[in-house]
Amino acid sequence: MLKKIIIGAIALSLFLPVIAEDVEEIVVTALKRSSTVVDTPAAITAISSTEIEDKGITNMHDLKHLVPSMNFTNVLGAQNITIRGIGQFNGNPGVSVSTDGIFQSRAHSSQLGEMDLERVEVLRGPQGTLYGRNSIGGVVNLITKNPSQETDGYVKLGYGEYDTTMAEAAFGGGISDNTSFRFVVHGTEQGEGYYDCLNLGCGEQGYTDKQAFRLKIQSDISDTVSANLMVASVETEGTPDPYGWLTDNRELAAVFGFPQVATETITLKPHEIYQTPTSQSVNGTNMTDREYDVSSLTLKIETAIGTLTSITASQEFYDQFNLDRDGTAGVYLDTFDVSETETFTQEFNLNVERDTMSLVFGLFYMDDETSRHTHFDNPQPILGLPAPSMLDFKHDKMNTESEAYFADGTFDLSDTTRLSLGIRRTTDEFTSKQDNFISILIPMPVIAAQTCDREVVTEYSSTTSRAVIQHDLTPDSNIYASLSEGFKAGGYATYECTEPYDPEEVTSLEFGFKGSLGENTSLNASLFRYDYTDFQVLQVVGIQTVTRNAGDATVNGLELEALTNVSDSLTLNYGVTLLDATYGDFLNTNGLEPQLGVQQLEGNYLSNAPKVSVNFGLNYTNILSSGSSLTYRANAAYKSKIYFSEFNEYSQDAYTIVDLNLIWESADETFRSRFFIKNATDEEYISGYLSSATGGGRFGQWGYPRTAGIEIQRNF
Q1: Does the pLDDT value for residue 129 go beyond 90?
Q2: How many whole angstroms separate alpha carbon 359 and alpha carbon 350?
Q3: β-pair type (195-197, 272-273)
Q4: What pLDDT was estimated at residue 14?
Q5: Which CATH number characterizes residue 605's domain?
Q6: Are 657 and 683 a contacting pair, CB within 8 Å?
Q7: What does the alpha-carbon distance between residue 688 and residue 80 come to, in Å, rounded to a whole number?
Q8: Mean pLDDT for the chain overall
Q9: Above 70 in pLDDT, residue 175?
Q10: CB 142 within 8 A of CB 98
């Protein structure tokens, strides 16, 4: 019923009378140059800083309710972003994330950009030319506020349910006539969890602690040279988004050496988990401890040819997590995993503007080095080993070098017609150093088996291109047609000594409309088709989840995104996405149901690709007699049935999330407060999914329950 109401409201709003002023234009840099959303011939959602504050967008969870066809989950605390059903979590995610033009080698490092934001840009569809790496499904650009000579800042405090406290402060201004700075610091702590732990004395789980800061210094070195230096860090720890059992296969658990698990009865309800102690953490498993540091230097040089931009960045990422692998009340198999990553990126862009054309030439280089160490603590006798014992996996290093060269241009064919052409050459080289699989019996260390000890170098290269024709219907509207390509490199299954999986490629055809319907409504519409080859999926093989090639996949879709200014006080925004995302010829064996043998999965739906997604928002501002204002914001996000694996054997039924915000702001905009309720109807839904043969089961991650809170802010 709610879906019908929302769709009806969308249709009705298109015929509302013209009352308000023109719809506000947002300038974006999605094409690596400045342009308006209307002039950008691609499916893009741009969210301004005002909207970010009013809607309380603090993370990707909030963002997914506002962007058509965008979905987001945490996989063991690591971000998994999908757009139009594309972007499944693995070593090479399908949706690229950048902060201030810096490519994020780890998607969850985007937390650095989730404070003091200027705007957010979400590009939907393959962005293989301008962005290249990991952008086969789309791109999320986070643009933070830059320093200025004007002294300003704010202090923000918040409190919410589950003993959640938040503090954020920003301050900036001029240091000298040509140099300015901006500093922001943030802290969030959730002292109570919304997961009930069924173990004796375990209590509630799901607490988090986040601390972050960012310093930016900008200097106009000369009339033609400017520099922007950034240093930032974010650290998170706690038990975020635990997983509970959904289903189990006890026969399979017994086969893999877990008879204790096989005899237990699993009866978990929403937001219930088991939590077991481990020698590595006094607080229990399902814990994360992450630290991300970045330093960057952005130089802009005005030359006789055009503007040359250099972005140099160094990133360090430390990740430690503990996981209750068996998911039961007993202590059978607890994972302790530590990885460290160092990433260096360098990008050069040359923007050339002429009367009838705009050109971008670019170079990109990345060196990414990751080391990882995993072991399993086994307090109970399993897998034929005595208790206690420890299975130790050692993976010394994975090094990735990526080089890319690209050119993109827009040419005026006439006063109303433009042609855009782009090409990119990408080369990825992987050096995989895989060490031994070792069983260490306590207290006497013993090497039980050696499954892999090798170093392999593999190289993947691809040339991707795009062509777009855009025609102005009116000064405020246009249509476009685009043909583009995307590429995602292959790689290795970390825990297996096997051949690598192949690269994934896509060809995309899209038709779109962008512009105004009268003076009060803006509409973006797109009709698209993706054809994938060697589509990459996550599969359970043995006791590990690995990446494999599924063969072909096809995505057909329609998107509508609109905004209507009904009056000076009332604004409506809405979006609808219709998807048909299915596998082609795909023979596969379910690692959790091997008795079914090889299955033909042709026609099965892609994971995290609901057929229907609807976003609806209402914003009403009332000016009080004192000059202050009250703003009422309501947002609803509907998603139809979602499958979580290529076998379509487990799914989440359709659900709707409603968020409410009430904002008061003083007449001089000095003071501001926001009362919010997230998931106001307390909808119970599964947002994430994992499968594991170790316990023969499937794990579900439940979405956030209803939470209410308040924020107060002092601007200066």
Answers
A1: no
A2: 8
A3: parallel
A4: 40
A5: 2.40.170.20
A6: yes
A7: 9
A8: 82
A9: yes
A10: yes
Residue 397 has pLDDT above 50, yes or no: yes
More confident residue, 28 or 475: 475
Q: Domain count for the chain, please give it.
A: 1
pLDDT range class, residue 262, cuts 50, 70, 90: low
Choice between 33 and 634, residue whose per-residue pLDDT is larger: 634
CA angle, residues 264, 270, 274, in degrees to nearest 5: 40
Give 396's pLDDT tier (boundaries 50, 70, 90): low
Six-digit token string for 560: 């509508």
pLDDT, residue 68, reads 77
**Where in 50-163 does DSSP place strands (E)?**
70-75, 78-83, 95-99, 102-103, 117-124, 138-144, 152-160
Token reading at 593: 């149901």
Confirm if 248 and 241 have CB atoms less than 8 A apart: no
- Contact predicate 392/377, CB 8 Å: no
DSSP assigned state of 10: H
Per the listing, tokens 């309501």 go with: 634
Q: How distant, in Å, are the alpha carbons of 207, 229, 373, 692, 713 from that of 319? A: 17, 26, 11, 21, 33
Cβ-based neighbour number of residue 660 at 10 Å = 17
Give the DSSP H/E element, type plus range, for residue 686. Answer: strand 686-692
- How far apart are alpha carbons 380 and 169 in whole angstroms? 49
Burial of 449 (0-12, 13-18, 19+ CB in 10 A): exposed
Highest mean pLDDT among 21-25, 190-194, 363-367: 363-367
Distance, CA of 513 to CA of 528 (rounded, Å): 12
What HEC string does 493-507 produce? CCCCCCCCECCEEEE
What's the predicted TM-score (pTM) here?
A: 0.88
Question: 614: how many CB neighbours lie within 10 A of its CB?
Answer: 25
Burial letters 166-200, b for 16+ CB under 10 A, else e:
bebbbebeeeeeeebbbbbbbebebeebbbbbbbe
Q: Could you give the CA distance from residue 408 to residue 359 in angstroms, rounded to a whole number? A: 6
Between the CA of residue 95 and those of 105, 326, 713, what are the distances in Å? 11, 30, 33
| Residues 377 and 334: beta-carbon distance below 8 Å | yes
Residue 694 has what pLDDT? 60
Tokens of residue 407, six digits: 């050119």
Band (692; pLDDT cuts 50, 70, 90): low
For 469-497, write each residue's pLDDT tens digit.
Answer: 999 999 889 999 999 998 888 877 655 56
Tokens representing residue 605 in the block: 């739906």
Nearest to 212 by CA among 169, 151, 180: 169
Name the residue with tokens 């008879």: 259
Instruction: Report, as an integer, the average pLDDT of 396-410.
Output: 89
Write out the two tokens for 192.
């109570």
CB 371 within 8 A of CB 339: yes
Alpha carbons within 13 A on the beta-carbon side of 618: 12
How many alpha carbons fall within 13 Å on the CB side of residue 662? 5
The range of the structural domain enclosing residue 20 comes to: 2-715
Helices (H), 23-160: 49-54, 60-63
**Per residue in 375-388, pLDDT tens?**
766 666 666 666 66
pLDDT of residue 170: 96
Whether the pLDDT of residue 269 is over 60: the answer is: yes
pLDDT at position 680: 96
Q: CB burial class (10 A; 0-12, 13-18, 19+) of residue 600?
A: exposed
Tokens of 226: 């400017």
Q: What angle do CA 91, 96, 102 make, to 5 degrees?
A: 110
Q: Comparing C-alpha atoms, which of 492, 604, 532 is closest to residue 137?
A: 532
Relative to beta strand 95-99, strand 138-144 is parallel
What is the mean predicted confidence (pLDDT) over 92-96? Answer: 81
Amino acid at 283: N
Question: Residues with Cβ < 8 Å from 168, sequence gap 6 or more?
Answer: 115, 116, 154, 155, 156, 184, 185, 186, 187
Structure tokens belonging to residue 150: 């004007």
Number of Cβ atoms within 10 Å of the Cβ of 598:
9
